[in-house]
Recover the amino acids of this structure.
């Protein structure tokens, strides 16, 4: 028996060809015609004839014996009806709702609900079927245990509580495929088998993973609602908050998750929801200081900027009102206009404030969060100039102290101490402490490292920790851009691992099952991506180990890194292209990706000088003290605050 549910995604762009999909099934009938009188069954059957040309008109139907026999019995029938309705309401969730309008699910079982039923199962047939279903807005399809979800790019009305009821405790074949059915199966297995469950969601960026994760949480919250509204609200409010800090506009998804999220929902043995716990990892911190063309910083910066602007509070947080800070406006200088005019930003600010309140942050904490965000923006505006004195030539200073003073004030630390920590560093040699000055480049790096660290730790703090569990893993999808850097490598390795896990469960277990039943297991063919994973993760010769090793050499350069990879990684998954400098290629399970090593070493080091930590710890801001007092775990994940029990 398998206790893991899978959701898998693919993305098919809406096709412009309109193909009318006529279901080959007969017209629906009453569920149990034998429970009803003949004339009623016949009347319903007449009403439900699919072909409008043969369906009787309303005038015609009024002449039906079932209607005619009711004439003159209004009062007694009304009474009977109200009794019946009351009974039905008591039965509640067990009643079947049949809904059949466009944009709602068509409650009809078709043979191609599960592609396993197809006689031929090759790629082309699958695509054709999915496309045909997609035209009809049937976005969900099963392939055995897997649910394929196509992104509808429009809002469908198939996620209301009515639908949660419809899928509650039903056998999978009772209703058309739906993400609620997957969530429901996980929940039912958890309760009946008393075993933890997990749901894996995978697909490329923009395919709909995050939306699906929300829908799963929505249904699970419905199922485990117990009777606590406060708790339900909290669970549903955590996502928008975490996503304001962790999502950003990218070239292909304007609400793209830039972090991995593992959400665990906890239930009592009887299946009542007790709480939820979110763990976050792999936040794309480099986005705080710089974004690629056409992309933006994390949503939260724009939301609070707009919110504070409309509250006339920019001055309080020392944010300029003419030109937006560099971290959120790398290119066009038009961001300030957007911030002032965007209705979305303003609304989202309101929503975020509500989330903070519902989840239970104090006013003081929220104020600290805003201050830290504003401090990060001011930090980005600190500029350095090189100065030379008689003794030192590599010195830098801050010629215009406005941004420096603002950042320091917001962080409740001394401005001079901050400048000191940015433009110099202590070295301890043979028990002696020597102060060395930083070049302009080095000081700039330290400045950006501080911003990233502040944001990263703030995000970890916001992300909360909160029987039996259903875990939901939502990460960013596989990425292959024009320029792929360290971030893409990390994301793609994570996806490679998920693929491996997926293969293990679906294909490897299938093979074992075949073998135990004496069936030829070679029938099941699949691409094993273990060798690629080994190439990345092996110690000490895997790509990541080599990168770590090279990052420890102060003299390492992009060239020495590529050389090291080339010397040590000799297999068909790795190559260095001719005539393209400082790049390497990887043959991932999902395709070939070319990576540009520029910046790899620096991003992998991601070190925050001790001098900065020391200064930040002197802050009078309690939250900031907390962020920099407890040590980070190895993976950079840490869970400080519990806001859900
Ligand atoms: N079931 C759905 N109903 C309606 N719209 C959807 C649905 N799923 C996805 N979308 C649309 O597609 C967009 C992208 O989806 P989503 O953000 O979930 O992608 P993702 O797979 O999480 O991408 P990334 O890897 O970049 O985080 C959503 O903002 C939404 O507009
Ligand atoms: C509901 O949950 C909230 C928050 O988790 C808790 O404070 C409250 O006591 C709970 N109420 C009931 C009736 O269980
Ligand atoms: C992004 O997604 C979150 C979570 O679904 C949602 O609350 C928010 O409104 C979305 N933002 C935008 C700009 O679409
Ligand atoms: C912008 O800020 C300056 C200085 O604080 C202030 O004098 C001015 O009125 C502000 N302008 C707007 C449009 O808020
Ligand atoms: C790699 O990235 C750097 C920095 O963005 C850029 O200057 C260089 O041209 C890129 N190399 C290739 C081969 O694209
Ligand atoms: Mg996402």
């Amino acid at each position: 028996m398998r206790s893991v549910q899978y959701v898998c995604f693919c993305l098919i762009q809406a096709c412009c060809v309109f193909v009318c999909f006529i279901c080959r099934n007969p017209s629906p009938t009453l569920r149990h015609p034998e429970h009803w009188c003949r004339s009623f069954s016949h009347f319903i059957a007449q009403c439900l004839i699919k072909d409008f040309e043969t369906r009787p008109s309303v005038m015609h139907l009024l002449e039906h014996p079932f209607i005619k026999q009711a004439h003159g019995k209004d009062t007694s029938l009304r009474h009977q009806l109200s009794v019946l309705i009351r009974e039905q309401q008591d039965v509640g969730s067990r009643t079947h709702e049949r809904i059949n309008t466009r944009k709602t699910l068509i409650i009809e079982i078709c043979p191609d609900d599960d592609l396993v039923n197809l006689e031929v199962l090759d790629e082309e047939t699958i695509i054709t079927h999915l496309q045909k279903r997609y035209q009809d807005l049937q976005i969900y399809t099963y392939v055995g245990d897997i649910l394929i979800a196509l992104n509808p790019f429009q809002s469908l009305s198939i996620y209301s509580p009515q639908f949660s009821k419809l899928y509650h405790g039903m056998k999978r074949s009772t209703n058309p495929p739906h993400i609620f059915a997957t969530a429901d199966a996980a929940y039912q297995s958890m309760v009946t088998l008393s075993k933890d469950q997990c749901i894996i969601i995978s697909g490329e960026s923009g395919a709909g993973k995050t939306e699906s994760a929300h829908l799963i949480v929505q249904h699970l919250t419905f199922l485990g609602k117990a009777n606590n509204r406060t708790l339900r609200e909290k669970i549903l409010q955590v996502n928008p908050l975490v996503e304001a800090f962790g999502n950003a506009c990218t070239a292909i998804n304007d609400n793209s998750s830039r972090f991995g999220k593992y959400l665990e929902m906890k239930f009592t043995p009887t299946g009542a929801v007790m709480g939820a716990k979110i763990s976050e990892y792999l936040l794309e911190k480099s986005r705080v200081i710089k974004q690629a063309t056409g992309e933006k910083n994390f949503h939260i910066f724009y939301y609070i900027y707009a919110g504070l602007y409309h509250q006339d509070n920019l001055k309080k947080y020392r944010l300029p009102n003419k030109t937006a800070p560099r971290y959120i406006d790398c290119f066009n200088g038009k961001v300030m206009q957007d911030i002032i005019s965007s209705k979305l930003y303003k609304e989202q600010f309101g929503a975020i404030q509500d989330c903070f309140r519902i989840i239970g942050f104090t006013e003081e904490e929220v104020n600290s969060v805003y201050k830290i965000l504003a401090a990060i923006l001011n930090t980005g505006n600190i500029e350095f100039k090189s100065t030379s004195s008689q003794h030192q030539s590599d010195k830098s200073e801050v010629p215009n102290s406005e941004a420096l003073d603002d950042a320091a004030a917001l962080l409740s630390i001394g401005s001079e101490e901050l400048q000191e920590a940015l433009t110099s560093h202590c070295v301890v040699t043979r028990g002696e402490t020597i102060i060395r000055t930083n070049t302009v480049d080095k000081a700039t790096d330290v400045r950006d490292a501080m911003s990233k660290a502040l944001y990263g730790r703030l995000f970890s703090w916001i992300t909360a920790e909160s029987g039996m569990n259903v875990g939901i893993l939502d990460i960013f999808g596989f990425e292959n851009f024009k320029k792929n850097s360290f971030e893409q490598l990390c994301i793609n390795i994570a996806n490679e691992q998920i693929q491996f896990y997926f293969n293990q469960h679906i294909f490897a277990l299938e093979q074992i099952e075949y073998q135990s039943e004496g069936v030829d297991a070679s029938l099941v063919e699949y691409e094993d991506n273990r060798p690629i994973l080994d190439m990345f993760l092996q110690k000490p010769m895997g790509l990541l180990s080599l990168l770590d090793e090279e990052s420890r050499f102060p003299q390492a350069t992009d060239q020495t890194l590529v050389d090291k990879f080339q010397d040590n990684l000799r297999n068909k998954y790795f190559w260095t292209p001719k005539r393209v400098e400082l790049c390497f290629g990887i043959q991932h399970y999902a395709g070939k990706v070319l990576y540009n090593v520029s910046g790899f070493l620096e991003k992998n080091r991601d070190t925050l000088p001790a001098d900065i930590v020391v200064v930040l710890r002197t802050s009078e801001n309690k939250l900031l003290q907390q962020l920099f007092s407890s040590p980070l775990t190895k993976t950079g994940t840490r869970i400080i605050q519990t806001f859900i029990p």
In short: Residues 421 and 611 are 5 Å apart (CA to CA). The chain has a mean pLDDT of 82. The chain is about 45% helix and 15% strand.
